[in-house]
Write a structure and sequence with these properties.
By secondary structure, this protein is an alpha/beta fold. It has a single domain, classed as Vaccinia Virus protein VP39 (Rossmann fold, 3-Layer(aba) Sandwich). It is built from eleven helices and seven strands. The protein has helices at residues 6-9, 27-33, 43-54, 71-77, 91-98, 139-152, 174-188, 197-206, 224-231, 233-244, 247-262; strands at 61-65, 83-88, 107-112, 127-131, 159-167, 209-218, 267-276. A seven-stranded mixed beta sheet has the order 3-2-1-4-5-7-6, with helices on both faces. The chain is globular and about 50 Å long. Residues 1-11 have low confidence and may be disordered. Bound molecules: S-adenosylmethionine (SAM). S-adenosylmethionine binds next to strand 2.
Amino acid sequence: MASTDPRALRKHVPVPGDGLDAARMPGHWLLARLGKRVLRPGGVELTRWMLDALGVDPQDRVVELAAGLGATARLTLTRRPAAYTAVDRDPAAVATLSSLASPGPTKVRAVRSDAADTRLPDGDATVVYGEAMLTMQPDPAKRRVIREARRLLNDSTGRYAIHELCLLPDGLDPALVERITADLQDAIHVGARPLTPGGWSELLAAEGFTVTAQRTAPMALLEPRRLIDDEGLIPALRIAGRALRDPVALRRVLHMRRVFRRHNAHLGAISLLAVPTPSHA
Ligand SMILES: C[S@@+](CC[C@H](N)C(=O)[O-])C[C@H]1O[C@@H](n2cnc3c(N)ncnc32)[C@H](O)[C@@H]1O
């Protein structure tokens, strides 16, 4: 029987969530343990849109906040930016990110720090982005991360993008927002607090950004079609096989998918592109 032990999945490199109880661990690390590498709500397609919108090119100095297992990092590195820095607070994620190889001349590094306090220099980045990480922060922490992105970015050439869960439509009944949020937190075991498209834009504006483009996509992270699109057919079958052999993990995955399906009409993925607002003090 194949093992779902992360040490068996990735030799020599620890996997985040190693040693945690499958019944209680954060949903994204449970999926990573099963072999899933794309952990953001809009999948690779919305990530590609985001990278195209950011227009990453060889002049850019890129900072990725909460880079996780480096799936987007690999796409970014094919665009050969001058520099790429991955930030994550999880030591096992940083160990994985430290082994990223650049296909070009990019200066690559991985640092372990909080996205709200990276200790990277002011105004040194031309591109900052983060995926599937703001949603899981309470509102004051969301603001601190966005403020940090603003601090890192060059005033004139900087671009910032996010890719997160969203609630649809704008103006959604607050009681329904509470119910969806509670169901998500119960399934994912993370304090997920998605915002509506207007809510994400307002938050960015309040921290000194002007939104210049946005795209939404269905929240289909655990649907078979998306799984194959994101991971490839054989890896998707392996993920399903590991889940089927682990009753606790299977129960968790099915619970997450049930909640995503139940709230399908009001849950989506969103990516927003923003630039520093010139007059913002
Ligand atoms: C759901 S995973 C997403 C990973 C990756 N961005 C992706 O889309 O595949 C969330 C990641 O965010 C990281 N993270 C969450 N909050 C963070 C924070 N405040 N500072 C740094 N990393 C954070 C976690 O350690 C984890 O790697």
